[in-house]
Amino acid sequence: MLSGLVIVLLPLVAGYLVTIHHAGLLALINRGVNASVYVILLLMGVSLAGLDDLADQLSRMGGQALALFTVISTCNLAGLWWLSNRLGLRADPTRVVPGAPVSKLAAVAGSLALVGVVVVGVALGLAGRDLPWLHDGAETLAEWVLYVLLALIGCQLRNSGMPLRQILLNRHGLAIALMLAATSLLGGLIAAPLLDLRISEGLALAAGFGWYSLSAILVGDQLGPAMGGVAFFNDLARELLAFVLIPLLIRRHAALAIGYGGATSMDFTLPVIQQHGGVTCVPVAVVSGFILSLLSPPLILFFLSL
Fold this sequence. Notes:
- The structure is a single chain.
- This protein has 13 helices and no strands.
- Helices cover 79% and strands 0% of the residues.
- By secondary structure, the chain is mainly alpha-helical.
Protein backbone atom coordinates (compact mmCIF):
# COMPACT_ATOMS: atom_id res chain seq x y z
CA MET A 1 0.00 0.00 0.00
CA LEU A 2 2.85 2.42 0.75
CA SER A 3 4.30 1.80 -2.69
CA GLY A 4 0.93 2.82 -4.13
CA LEU A 5 1.07 6.01 -2.07
CA VAL A 6 4.50 6.84 -3.47
CA ILE A 7 3.36 6.17 -7.05
CA VAL A 8 0.40 8.54 -6.69
CA LEU A 9 2.37 11.21 -4.82
CA LEU A 10 5.15 11.30 -7.39
CA PRO A 11 3.18 13.30 -9.99
CA LEU A 12 2.08 15.77 -7.30
CA VAL A 13 5.66 16.33 -6.11
CA ALA A 14 6.99 16.46 -9.67
CA GLY A 15 4.44 19.12 -10.57
CA TYR A 16 5.29 21.13 -7.46
CA LEU A 17 8.96 21.26 -8.51
CA VAL A 18 8.11 23.03 -11.78
CA THR A 19 8.30 26.82 -11.77
CA ILE A 20 6.38 28.60 -14.53
CA HIS A 21 6.58 32.31 -15.36
CA HIS A 22 4.58 32.41 -18.60
CA ALA A 23 1.01 33.58 -17.93
CA GLY A 24 -0.36 31.80 -20.98
CA LEU A 25 1.09 28.47 -19.87
CA LEU A 26 -0.34 28.92 -16.38
CA ALA A 27 -3.76 29.60 -17.89
CA LEU A 28 -3.40 26.42 -19.96
CA ILE A 29 -2.56 24.44 -16.82
CA ASN A 30 -5.63 25.83 -15.05
CA ARG A 31 -7.82 24.76 -17.97
CA GLY A 32 -6.13 21.36 -17.93
CA VAL A 33 -7.01 20.92 -14.23
CA ASN A 34 -10.64 21.81 -14.88
CA ALA A 35 -10.86 19.50 -17.89
CA SER A 36 -9.22 16.61 -15.98
CA VAL A 37 -11.70 16.99 -13.12
CA TYR A 38 -14.66 16.82 -15.50
CA VAL A 39 -13.24 13.78 -17.30
CA ILE A 40 -12.58 11.86 -14.07
CA LEU A 41 -15.99 12.66 -12.58
CA LEU A 42 -17.62 11.54 -15.83
CA LEU A 43 -15.70 8.27 -15.63
CA MET A 44 -16.63 7.93 -11.95
CA GLY A 45 -20.27 8.14 -12.98
CA VAL A 46 -19.72 5.40 -15.58
CA SER A 47 -18.14 3.21 -12.88
CA LEU A 48 -21.05 3.90 -10.50
CA ALA A 49 -23.47 2.63 -13.12
CA GLY A 50 -21.62 -0.71 -13.13
CA LEU A 51 -22.38 -1.38 -9.46
CA ASP A 52 -24.81 -4.14 -8.57
CA ASP A 53 -28.10 -2.92 -7.01
CA LEU A 54 -27.36 0.65 -8.08
CA ALA A 55 -30.44 2.14 -6.39
CA ASP A 56 -29.55 0.57 -3.04
CA GLN A 57 -25.93 1.66 -3.41
CA LEU A 58 -26.95 5.28 -4.14
CA SER A 59 -29.30 5.29 -1.16
CA ARG A 60 -26.58 3.96 1.12
CA MET A 61 -24.09 6.43 -0.32
CA GLY A 62 -26.40 9.36 0.40
CA GLY A 63 -27.00 8.21 3.97
CA GLN A 64 -23.28 7.79 4.64
CA ALA A 65 -22.46 11.19 3.13
CA LEU A 66 -25.15 12.88 5.25
CA ALA A 67 -23.94 11.21 8.46
CA LEU A 68 -20.30 12.01 7.71
CA PHE A 69 -21.13 15.61 6.85
CA THR A 70 -23.17 16.07 10.05
CA VAL A 71 -20.45 14.71 12.36
CA ILE A 72 -17.58 16.59 10.69
CA SER A 73 -19.51 19.88 10.46
CA THR A 74 -20.46 19.69 14.13
CA CYS A 75 -16.78 19.28 15.08
CA ASN A 76 -15.74 22.05 12.68
CA LEU A 77 -18.28 24.57 13.92
CA ALA A 78 -17.50 23.89 17.59
CA GLY A 79 -13.74 24.24 17.10
CA LEU A 80 -13.95 27.29 14.84
CA TRP A 81 -16.42 29.01 17.18
CA TRP A 82 -13.95 28.59 20.05
CA LEU A 83 -11.08 29.82 17.86
CA SER A 84 -13.12 32.76 16.62
CA ASN A 85 -13.61 33.97 20.20
CA ARG A 86 -9.88 33.61 20.88
CA LEU A 87 -8.46 35.25 17.74
CA GLY A 88 -10.56 38.38 17.77
CA LEU A 89 -10.48 38.63 13.96
CA ARG A 90 -12.97 41.23 12.76
CA ALA A 91 -14.48 41.67 9.33
CA ASP A 92 -14.71 45.16 7.82
CA PRO A 93 -17.47 45.06 5.20
CA THR A 94 -17.09 48.82 4.61
CA ARG A 95 -13.73 48.13 2.89
CA VAL A 96 -14.61 45.96 -0.08
CA VAL A 97 -12.20 44.66 -2.67
CA PRO A 98 -12.42 46.68 -5.91
CA GLY A 99 -13.83 44.56 -8.70
CA ALA A 100 -14.46 41.58 -6.42
CA PRO A 101 -16.86 39.05 -7.92
CA VAL A 102 -20.10 38.85 -5.99
CA SER A 103 -22.21 36.27 -7.82
CA LYS A 104 -23.01 33.47 -5.42
CA LEU A 105 -25.30 31.93 -8.02
CA ALA A 106 -22.40 31.59 -10.46
CA ALA A 107 -20.28 29.81 -7.84
CA VAL A 108 -23.12 27.46 -6.87
CA ALA A 109 -23.83 26.77 -10.54
CA GLY A 110 -20.20 25.74 -11.03
CA SER A 111 -20.45 23.30 -8.13
CA LEU A 112 -23.72 21.81 -9.35
CA ALA A 113 -22.29 21.45 -12.86
CA LEU A 114 -19.88 18.85 -11.46
CA VAL A 115 -22.84 16.94 -10.04
CA GLY A 116 -24.37 17.06 -13.50
CA VAL A 117 -21.23 15.54 -15.01
CA VAL A 118 -21.46 12.58 -12.59
CA VAL A 119 -25.14 12.13 -13.52
CA VAL A 120 -24.25 12.14 -17.23
CA GLY A 121 -21.59 9.51 -16.51
CA VAL A 122 -24.11 7.31 -14.72
CA ALA A 123 -26.51 7.65 -17.67
CA LEU A 124 -23.76 6.66 -20.13
CA GLY A 125 -22.78 3.73 -17.92
CA LEU A 126 -26.37 2.49 -17.71
CA ALA A 127 -26.75 2.79 -21.48
CA GLY A 128 -23.63 0.66 -21.94
CA ARG A 129 -24.25 -1.71 -19.04
CA ASP A 130 -23.87 -4.76 -21.31
CA LEU A 131 -20.43 -3.60 -22.45
CA PRO A 132 -17.89 -4.86 -19.86
CA TRP A 133 -15.03 -3.09 -21.65
CA LEU A 134 -16.72 0.27 -21.04
CA HIS A 135 -16.55 -0.02 -17.24
CA ASP A 136 -13.09 -1.60 -17.18
CA GLY A 137 -11.79 1.01 -19.59
CA ALA A 138 -13.33 3.81 -17.53
CA GLU A 139 -11.44 2.73 -14.40
CA THR A 140 -8.11 2.42 -16.23
CA LEU A 141 -8.48 5.75 -18.02
CA ALA A 142 -9.54 7.50 -14.78
CA GLU A 143 -6.36 6.27 -13.09
CA TRP A 144 -4.11 7.73 -15.81
CA VAL A 145 -6.02 11.03 -15.92
CA LEU A 146 -5.64 11.17 -12.13
CA TYR A 147 -1.84 11.10 -12.46
CA VAL A 148 -2.00 13.99 -14.94
CA LEU A 149 -4.36 15.90 -12.65
CA LEU A 150 -2.08 15.52 -9.62
CA ALA A 151 0.91 16.81 -11.60
CA LEU A 152 -1.08 19.83 -12.77
CA ILE A 153 -2.35 20.52 -9.23
CA GLY A 154 1.21 20.39 -7.87
CA CYS A 155 2.21 22.90 -10.53
CA GLN A 156 -0.75 25.12 -9.64
CA LEU A 157 0.16 25.16 -5.95
CA ARG A 158 3.83 25.97 -6.67
CA ASN A 159 2.93 28.85 -8.99
CA SER A 160 0.02 30.29 -7.02
CA GLY A 161 2.02 33.35 -5.98
CA MET A 162 1.80 32.39 -2.31
CA PRO A 163 5.34 32.31 -0.83
CA LEU A 164 5.95 30.19 2.27
CA ARG A 165 7.04 33.24 4.29
CA GLN A 166 3.73 34.97 3.63
CA ILE A 167 1.82 31.87 4.71
CA LEU A 168 3.70 31.41 7.97
CA LEU A 169 3.48 35.09 8.91
CA ASN A 170 -0.30 35.15 8.61
CA ARG A 171 -1.07 33.68 12.01
CA HIS A 172 -4.84 34.02 11.60
CA GLY A 173 -4.92 32.05 8.35
CA LEU A 174 -2.55 29.42 9.74
CA ALA A 175 -4.56 28.99 12.97
CA ILE A 176 -7.86 28.71 11.10
CA ALA A 177 -6.49 26.12 8.67
CA LEU A 178 -5.00 23.98 11.44
CA MET A 179 -8.22 24.11 13.47
CA LEU A 180 -10.34 23.13 10.46
CA ALA A 181 -7.97 20.27 9.64
CA ALA A 182 -7.82 18.99 13.23
CA THR A 183 -11.59 19.10 13.81
CA SER A 184 -12.29 17.50 10.41
CA LEU A 185 -10.01 14.57 11.21
CA LEU A 186 -11.61 14.29 14.65
CA GLY A 187 -15.00 14.12 12.92
CA GLY A 188 -13.71 11.41 10.57
CA LEU A 189 -12.41 9.47 13.55
CA ILE A 190 -15.81 9.65 15.27
CA ALA A 191 -17.81 8.90 12.12
CA ALA A 192 -15.80 5.84 11.03
CA PRO A 193 -17.34 3.30 13.47
CA LEU A 194 -20.80 4.83 12.97
CA LEU A 195 -20.51 4.17 9.22
CA ASP A 196 -18.88 0.74 9.65
CA LEU A 197 -15.63 2.01 8.10
CA ARG A 198 -12.03 1.45 9.07
CA ILE A 199 -10.49 4.35 11.00
CA SER A 200 -8.11 5.09 8.13
CA GLU A 201 -11.05 5.27 5.69
CA GLY A 202 -12.94 7.69 7.93
CA LEU A 203 -9.85 9.90 8.18
CA ALA A 204 -9.33 9.80 4.41
CA LEU A 205 -12.93 10.87 3.80
CA ALA A 206 -12.54 13.71 6.31
CA ALA A 207 -9.29 14.98 4.80
CA GLY A 208 -10.91 16.47 1.71
CA PHE A 209 -11.48 19.74 3.63
CA GLY A 210 -14.11 20.78 1.08
CA TRP A 211 -12.06 20.00 -2.05
CA TYR A 212 -14.81 17.75 -3.38
CA SER A 213 -13.49 17.19 -6.89
CA LEU A 214 -10.11 15.94 -5.67
CA SER A 215 -11.35 13.96 -2.66
CA ALA A 216 -13.89 12.11 -4.80
CA ILE A 217 -11.23 11.18 -7.33
CA LEU A 218 -8.59 10.01 -4.84
CA VAL A 219 -11.01 8.10 -2.62
CA GLY A 220 -12.84 6.61 -5.58
CA ASP A 221 -9.57 5.39 -7.09
CA GLN A 222 -8.68 3.44 -3.92
CA LEU A 223 -12.04 2.50 -2.36
CA GLY A 224 -14.33 2.32 -5.37
CA PRO A 225 -16.87 4.69 -6.96
CA ALA A 226 -19.42 4.38 -4.16
CA MET A 227 -17.02 5.69 -1.51
CA GLY A 228 -15.80 8.28 -4.01
CA GLY A 229 -19.40 9.46 -4.20
CA VAL A 230 -19.57 9.70 -0.40
CA ALA A 231 -16.44 11.90 -0.40
CA PHE A 232 -17.83 14.02 -3.23
CA PHE A 233 -21.20 14.77 -1.62
CA ASN A 234 -19.71 15.26 1.85
CA ASP A 235 -17.33 17.95 0.62
CA LEU A 236 -19.82 19.49 -1.81
CA ALA A 237 -22.31 19.91 1.06
CA ARG A 238 -19.62 21.86 2.97
CA GLU A 239 -19.29 24.36 0.15
CA LEU A 240 -23.03 24.81 -0.26
CA LEU A 241 -23.51 25.37 3.48
CA ALA A 242 -20.57 27.79 3.51
CA PHE A 243 -22.40 29.99 0.99
CA VAL A 244 -25.23 30.25 3.53
CA LEU A 245 -23.12 30.66 6.70
CA ILE A 246 -20.58 33.24 5.49
CA PRO A 247 -23.02 36.17 5.05
CA LEU A 248 -24.72 35.31 8.33
CA LEU A 249 -21.65 34.87 10.54
CA ILE A 250 -18.67 36.73 9.10
CA ARG A 251 -19.30 40.06 10.86
CA ARG A 252 -19.41 38.56 14.36
CA HIS A 253 -17.41 35.35 13.87
CA ALA A 254 -15.05 35.99 10.95
CA ALA A 255 -12.71 33.09 11.72
CA LEU A 256 -15.61 30.63 11.83
CA ALA A 257 -17.10 31.89 8.55
CA ILE A 258 -13.76 31.83 6.73
CA GLY A 259 -12.63 28.51 8.18
CA TYR A 260 -15.79 26.55 7.48
CA GLY A 261 -15.26 27.01 3.74
CA GLY A 262 -12.15 24.84 4.08
CA ALA A 263 -9.99 24.61 0.96
CA THR A 264 -12.62 26.54 -1.02
CA SER A 265 -11.82 29.74 0.91
CA MET A 266 -9.13 30.55 -1.65
CA ASP A 267 -11.39 30.11 -4.69
CA PHE A 268 -15.09 29.21 -4.79
CA THR A 269 -16.22 30.84 -1.53
CA LEU A 270 -13.71 33.72 -1.72
CA PRO A 271 -16.11 36.00 -3.64
CA VAL A 272 -18.68 35.71 -0.83
CA ILE A 273 -15.97 36.36 1.79
CA GLN A 274 -14.83 39.41 -0.18
CA GLN A 275 -18.34 40.77 -0.50
CA HIS A 276 -19.43 40.36 3.12
CA GLY A 277 -16.14 40.48 5.04
CA GLY A 278 -14.23 43.16 3.17
CA VAL A 279 -10.54 43.47 2.37
CA THR A 280 -9.41 42.49 5.88
CA CYS A 281 -10.61 38.92 5.44
CA VAL A 282 -9.19 38.25 1.98
CA PRO A 283 -5.53 37.41 2.83
CA VAL A 284 -6.67 35.30 5.80
CA ALA A 285 -9.05 33.34 3.59
CA VAL A 286 -6.47 32.83 0.84
CA VAL A 287 -3.80 31.61 3.28
CA SER A 288 -6.22 29.30 5.09
CA GLY A 289 -7.54 27.83 1.85
CA PHE A 290 -4.04 27.44 0.42
CA ILE A 291 -2.73 25.54 3.46
CA LEU A 292 -5.72 23.18 3.41
CA SER A 293 -5.32 22.64 -0.34
CA LEU A 294 -1.68 21.79 0.24
CA LEU A 295 -2.47 19.38 3.10
CA SER A 296 -5.43 17.57 1.56
CA PRO A 297 -3.89 15.40 -1.22
CA PRO A 298 -0.99 13.92 0.81
CA LEU A 299 -3.23 13.33 3.85
CA ILE A 300 -5.90 11.53 1.81
CA LEU A 301 -3.29 9.39 0.09
CA PHE A 302 -1.50 8.64 3.37
CA PHE A 303 -4.67 7.50 5.15
CA LEU A 304 -5.72 5.40 2.16
CA SER A 305 -2.35 3.65 2.24
CA LEU A 306 -2.78 2.46 5.86
